[in-house]
Input
Amino acid sequence: MAPFLVIFVTFVAVPAGLGLWMSLHDWDFMLENRPFVGLQNYLDLFDPASATFEMFWNGMRATGIFTVASVPLLVSVPLGLAVLLNRRFAGRTFFRAVFFMPYVLGVAVVGLLFRFILDPNIGIVNGLTGWSIPWITAQPWAWISLVLMTVWWTLGFNTIIYLAGLQDIPSELYDAAKVDGASGWQQFRHVTLPGLRTVMIFVVTITVLASANMFGQSDLVTGGGPGDSTRTALMVFLQEGLGAFRMGNAAAMSYLLAVFLGIISIINVLAMREKRRPRWRS
Output
């Protein structure tokens, strides 16, 4: 385990510890000294009179909007695709590759591609359809564009995870359900979904975390606009830390977001885990 531990300590543990230490200081690159301020950076995030309050919570609101809008699609659409691609038909492997291929693209490629496609003036969509929809310059179109491009880009990963889970469900369960006269929907509800419970916990958790850390799509396609409506939390952290050089504030913001995501992940696992019935002794 030594090679892994070296990488983990160097690139995860040490930066995490340094970030926590920075969040407890007035860590401004423009200052010669970085005085210790304790929890003040965190308290400022809950103080409406502070300079960071409105900026932070606006970013959190944008992140929440994107997460709430994208996660249901990124959980349900890949599940439907996985069920279809799990059937036996000619070209099944080809279609699996087609749906997974966008996921291997970098966010810079996807962002620039959709920036060109959705541009209100020279974009392909408006040009071919004759529409005049402000896809990336007005709401709610900016959010619709960001959500749809993210779904197209990343659904392949969740689809592959679902496919792996579907192949672990014994075919005998479906055969027994058919013998009992279960319809396709009843088989999906009473065999497929229970068999994918553990997989769905994993998919929902990583999808929430990924959506809450959305940065590249908004930065490249909308630039955080219109106004600051799509300026996500990570964009705020970047501006505060590397733009304004106030790394202490940025670190406190990031750790507060991490706490929120940890709570949400725990709630998700507790809500979706299998409920065991109590066993009573006679």
Summary: Residues 224 and 231 are 4 Å apart (CA to CA). The first helix runs from residue 2 to 23. Residues 278-282 have pLDDT under 50 and may be disordered.
